[in-house]
Design brief:
Blueprint (H helix, E strand, L loop, with lengths): L2 E2 L3 H11 L3 E11 L5 E5 L5 H7 L12 E2 L1 H7 L10 H12 L1 E13 L5 H4 L1 H14 L6 H15 L2 H11 L1 E2 L1
Parallel strand pairs: 2-5, 3-6
Antiparallel strand pairs: 1-5, 2-3, 2-4
Length: 174
């Protein structure tokens, strides 16, 4: 399972208190293997404009590292079961369309990468949901949006093992 840094919630609550216009705050995420050996760290965009731009490629948040205001979810609605395996991507997209969002630069969560996890076992299905959401939100005039679609199609075609090997070599992704 995922592990939070001891001060994660305190840091995020303090950030939201200091930034009342922000409705959702996430953080960078460390990734480890099942023996807790470091694999890589994922950094997410910190500023709202960069977060909005990232949606075209992938979710700009690590689901387990997010804290959001209940009022924002009441406004946009909860998880949409139509996007099973991508409910978080959809919810975050809807929140970011109506409210400011941010990511803290520190890795406040560690995710254990396991071959038995849902995200690995159902990788193809998750990629199809991401592609459907990218298509739903497509900005036809944006080359970035088309590149995001192409990236998702490519990720559906490439086996996971080579991608993980590249991430391990780089040590950090963003």
């Amino acid at each position: 399972g995922d592990m939070n840094e001891p001060d994660r919630l305190a840091m995020q609550v303090a950030f939201l208190a200091a930034h009342p216009a922000v409705a959702l705050v996430g953080s960078a995420t460390h990734h480890v293997d099942e023996e807790l050996r470091p694999l890589y760290t994922t950094h997410y965009p910190e500023a709202h404009a960069a977060i909005l731009a990232r949606f075209a490629f992938r979710a700009p948040f690590s689901h387990g590292a997010c804290l959001f205001r209940a009022a924002a979810v009441r406004t946009v609605g909860a998880y949409n079961p139509a996007y099973e395996l991508g409910e978080d991507y959809d919810l975050f997209w809807r929140i970011a369309a109506r409210f400011r969002c941010a990511n803290l630069p520190d890795a406040l969560m560690t995710r254990v990468e396991s071959g038995a996890s849902l995200s690995h076992a159902r990788r193809g299905a998750m990629a199809r949901v991401r592609l459907a959401l990218q298509w739903r939100h497509l900005q036809w005039w944006s080359p970035r949006a088309w590149l995001g679609l192409a990236r998702s199609l490519l990720l559906m075609a490439v086996p996971e093992a080579p991608l993980l090997a590249v991430k391990r070599v780089l040590g950090t992704v963003g």
